[in-house]
Amino acid sequence: MSFITTFLISLGLAMDAFAVAIGSGMALKKVKLYDAVLVATFFGGFQLFMPLIGWIVGLAIREAISSVDHWIAFLLLAFIGGKMIHESIYEQEGVEEAKAANPRNLYILLGLAVATSIDALAVGLSVSLLQTSIVELAVVIGIVTFVLSFAGVYIGNRVGNFCEKQVTIIGGVILIGIGVKILVEHLSAAG
């Protein structure tokens, strides 16, 4: 997997966490460095480990589904991207909950970190089906999510909810595009 593809997948996955970090920043009257580091560590850490878990699960089932693995990878990425777009346009539940919740509460932060990293679990599963290494991807996902979440807390505290919706839509489009790229490359190689 090229670094550009790795970075784009990381960017797409980080958008949910970024949007929720913006909401977290909005929930705080005054943001301290500790707040931004805490949110970024939770979100970046979960985004780093969830693809690894998905990859391990994928290794266990790869042989059984090897003839359709490219379709599964495409469908998972398209579903995740579509879900992100749909939620940002119609629901906005995660961001609204983050605004009302105190991100300094570790239980709330844990819940938000898990919720924003489920997509990374599915991407890890997809990567295992493509027989691609996960370590570089997981590390880049974690770093990109950490940096964007850190910035998101400060942005949310200063700007508010101006760009949350657009950020999540962009992330969804990126993931769908990567899914299409995987499918086209595999079908071109097979044909």
From TrEMBL:
<keyword id="KW-0464">Manganese</keyword>
<dbReference type="InterPro" id="IPR003810">
    <property type="entry name" value="Mntp/YtaF"/>
</dbReference>
<feature type="transmembrane region" description="Helical">
    <location>
        <begin position="68"/>
        <end position="86"/>
    </location>
</feature>
<feature type="transmembrane region" description="Helical">
    <location>
        <begin position="106"/>
        <end position="130"/>
    </location>
</feature>
<dbReference type="Pfam" id="PF02659">
    <property type="entry name" value="Mntp"/>
</dbReference>
<comment type="similarity">
    <text>Belongs to the MntP (TC 9.B.29) family.</text>
</comment>
<keyword id="KW-0812">Transmembrane</keyword>
<keyword id="KW-1003">Cell membrane</keyword>
<feature type="transmembrane region" description="Helical">
    <location>
        <begin position="167"/>
        <end position="184"/>
    </location>
</feature>
<feature type="transmembrane region" description="Helical">
    <location>
        <begin position="137"/>
        <end position="155"/>
    </location>
</feature>
<keyword id="KW-0813">Transport</keyword>
<feature type="transmembrane region" description="Helical">
    <location>
        <begin position="37"/>
        <end position="61"/>
    </location>
</feature>
<protein>
    <recommendedName>
        <fullName>Putative manganese efflux pump MntP</fullName>
    </recommendedName>
</protein>
<keyword id="KW-1133">Transmembrane helix</keyword>
<keyword id="KW-0472">Membrane</keyword>
<dbReference type="InterPro" id="IPR022929">
    <property type="entry name" value="Put_MntP"/>
</dbReference>
<comment type="function">
    <text>Probably functions as a manganese efflux pump.</text>
</comment>
<keyword id="KW-0406">Ion transport</keyword>
